[in-house]
């Protein structure tokens, strides 16, 4: 097919594929219960019920692990907006509608589990967490927000292609956060969440692959638009830039991980640079995508240099602080 297809036509053409992929997903899924991965015995009442309110000394997570876990949770909290976005693009009829609701139900347990873990273990300020949740959900989310223009424009291709990358990025972020927590309970929990995200990614990735076969040039235009404007949904979280730096320097999610573990695996799976069915503008945009990969590679190299400089500064500050403490200790002994 060479003529550009409407979203309604694409929805109809892809519906049999959606049905097949839903069957596969339901066979592959691994049901789990959020409450099974919460160390409830560590919990105790807060002030309103005669207990003790949170104190920073109670947190056992490192700055990197705490920042990453809270960022991941606040990203999951915007599920109402994500549900609205995919429902608008995919519709609520037939297999598409079933998937929208099934995906939402599975995603919902991520926020439940992460919040329970953080509040029960007192690994973050629960009052601040609730204030951030309210602000984050009030801000909502749309891929066209914050100066990006009308990125999705209610188009199906942009939607499924974006979430292909986003779900994989979320899976990687959760998995690396689990490792950074240095807590086997948190690691098990985040493995479960990562497993869900991986299956969701596979679903969207394979829908996108089918779309590339049906309308390659049209899909290529959407792919180019998505990667040129890509942002993780958590960019609406207050103080996102500072948190992103902490997470990146801590090795949870940085430009190298984004390129090597998210962007390139999906592009290779779709055989973007080997396909011969792109023509005209589609072929030109595929070539420009090659330039984008080079730009991302350059960003990785620059980030690594900046990261090493930052770590060196932090090391010197830590040494000075340790020396000062030693001098104070010596003078008082």
From TrEMBL:
Residues the entry annotates as binding Fe cation 2: 107, 167, 197, 200
CDD domains linked: Acyl_ACP_Desat
Cofactor: Fe(2+); Fe cation
GO molecular function annotation: metal ion binding; stearoyl-[ACP] desaturase activity
Cofactor comment: Binds 2 iron ions per subunit.
Record-level GO BP terms: fatty acid biosynthetic process
The entry's keywords: Coiled coil, Fatty acid biosynthesis, Fatty acid metabolism, Iron, Lipid biosynthesis, Lipid metabolism, Metal-binding, Oxidoreductase
GO CC, alphabetical: cytosol
Coiled-coil annotated spans: 286-313
Superkingdom classification of source: Bacteria
Residues that bind Fe cation 1: 76, 107, 110, 197
Family membership noted in the UniProt record: Belongs to the fatty acid desaturase type 2 family.
Subunit field text: Homodimer.
The protein's name: Acyl-ACP desaturase
Organism, scientific name: Mycolicibacterium llatzerense
Higher taxonomy: Bacteria, Bacillati, Actinomycetota, Actinomycetes, Mycobacteriales
């Amino acid at each position: 097919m060479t003529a550009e297809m409407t979203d309604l036509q694409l929805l109809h053409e892809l519906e049999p594929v959606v049905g097949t992929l839903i069957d596969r997903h339901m066979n592959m899924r691994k049901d789990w219960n959020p409450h099974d991965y919460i160390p409830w015995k560590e919990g105790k009442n807060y002030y309103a019920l005669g207990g003790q309110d949170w104190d920073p000394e109670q947190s056992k997570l490192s700055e990197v692990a705490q920042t990453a876990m809270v960022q991941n949770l606040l990203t999951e909290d915007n599920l109402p907006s994500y549900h609205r976005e995919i429902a608008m693009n995919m519709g609520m009829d037939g297999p598409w509608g079933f998937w929208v609701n099934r995906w939402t139900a599975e995603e919902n347990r991520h926020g439940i589990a992460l919040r329970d873990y953080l509040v029960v273990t007192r690994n973050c300020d629960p009052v601040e967490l609730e204030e951030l949740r309210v602000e984050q959900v009030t801000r909502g989310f749309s891929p066209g927000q914050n100066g990006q223009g009308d990125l999705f424009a209610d188009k199906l291709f942009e939607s499924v292609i974006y979430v292909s990358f986003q779900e994989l990025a979320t899976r990687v972020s959760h998995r690396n956060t689990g490792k950074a927590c240095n807590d086997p309970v948190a690691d098990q929990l985040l493995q479960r969440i990562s497993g869900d995200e991986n299956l969701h990614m596979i679903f969207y990735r394979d829908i996108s692959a089918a779309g590339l076969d049906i309308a390659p040039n049209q899909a290529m235009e959407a792919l180019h638009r998505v990667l040129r404007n890509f942002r993780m949904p958590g960019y609406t979280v207050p103080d996102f830039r500072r948190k992103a730096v902490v997470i990146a320097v801590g090795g949870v999610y940085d430009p190298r991980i984004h390129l090597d573990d998210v962007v390139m695996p999906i592009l290779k799976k779709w055989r973007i640079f080997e396909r011969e069915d792109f023509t005209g503008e589609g072929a030109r945009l595929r070539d420009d995508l090659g330039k984008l990969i080079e730009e991302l590679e350059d960003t990785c190299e620059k980030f690594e240099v900046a990261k090493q400089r930052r770590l060196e500064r932090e090391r010197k500050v830590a040494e000075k602080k340790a020396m000062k403490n030693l001098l104070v200790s010596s003078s008082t002994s």
